[in-house]
């Protein structure tokens, strides 16, 4: 009897198993999302890490903005930041000449105004230094 019914119904077929890959797609999307967020976080960290303050530029700006009102204090400031700023031999020679000329403004109680030749030498050195 069972065979008789199946022979009459030709439209019904056996159950076919359909492969289900949705779980792999789901985990793949989670992995790609995690990877993308990790790349974005690392890019943001790298961007802010490269925003470090350039100390040489700060020293250069301090030297460039000296107003020459207090000669003794300015002589010490020029000496300090010029020593921190120089790198190569040519700059060292010029800076040492300038620092030697500034010695007369440092160790006295009363000092005259800084001369124009010293100001010109400082401007020359600042023009040579690459920041």
TrEMBL record:
Q: Which UniProt keywords apply?
A: Membrane, Transmembrane, Transmembrane helix
Specify whether Membrane is a keyword of the entry: yes
Q: Where are the transmembrane segments?
A: 24-48
Q: What is this protein called?
A: Uncharacterized protein
